[in-house]
Amino acid sequence: MFKTAKTVQQVAALPFVLRDEGFEVMMITARRDGRWILPKGWPESGEAYCDGAAREAGEEAGVFGSVHAAPVGDFTYRKVMRQGYVVPSQVFVFALWVRETRDTWPEKDVRKRRWITLTEAAGLAGDRGLARFMRGIAETDGAALRSVLAEMEAGGAPAREPATS
């Protein structure tokens, strides 16, 4: 008899800045095995997904800014749960225009962080789903991020300024 595989949903931030050379994104290491990933986690009860992504970016990477209310995409990966079993996880990714990078943050002692180009991020990503997602962003030269940034700068974007506690 086969069991139906449970699928979980997580949220991730795609922290970005625009430099003269183009977009850079921040990636962090996973606590368990040091793979390079995006800040991600579980949305809290009653929390908008975009706000959860922004909260995770603050906790895991020490970056804060404006988060776009609509995801720029999603990817799936195999999530190892605390109990040891594996489930497919669909991760909704929200663009976070970084305005502040802190030197200290809650998970500083258990993670590394790095600003890199979109192309570097596609090559550094620690799992296939994330790598495929980042390649898609890189291959369009960050068109999704350009669109989000234009909306935010025009003030017409569905963006939020989460608390920076």
Q: Can you describe this structure?
A:
- The protein contains 4 helices and 9 strands.
- It is of the alpha+beta class.
- β6 and β7 (86-101) form a beta hairpin.
- α2 runs antiparallel to α3.
- The termini are far apart.
What key attributes describe this structure?
165 residues; 37% strand; 9-stranded mixed sheet; 9 strands; Nucleoside Triphosphate Pyrophosphohydrolase; alpha+beta
Any idea of the CATH topology?
A: Nucleoside Triphosphate Pyrophosphohydrolase
| End-to-end distance | 49 Å
Query: How many alpha or pi helices?
Result: 4
The level 1 CATH classification is Alpha Beta
Instruction: Please report which band the strand proportion falls in: under 5%, 5-15%, 15-25%, 25-35%, 35-45% or over 45%.
Output: 35-45%
Class by SSE composition: alpha+beta
* SSE pattern, N- to C-terminal: EEEEHEEEEHHHE
Strand elements, count: 9
CATH architecture: Alpha-Beta Complex
Overall 3D shape: globular
Give the SSE map.
Layout: E1 8-19, E2 22-29, E3 36-37, E4 40-41, H1 49-61, E5 63-68, E6 73-80, E7 86-101, E8 113-117, H2 118-124, H3 128-139, H4 143-154, E9 159-160
Parallel strand pairs: 1-7
Antiparallel strand pairs: 1-2, 1-4, 2-3, 2-8, 5-7, 5-9, 6-7
Helix pairs in contact: 2-3
Task: Please give a quick description of this structure.
The chain has 165 residues and is of the alpha+beta class. It contains four helices and nine strands; from the N terminus they run ββββαββββαααβ.
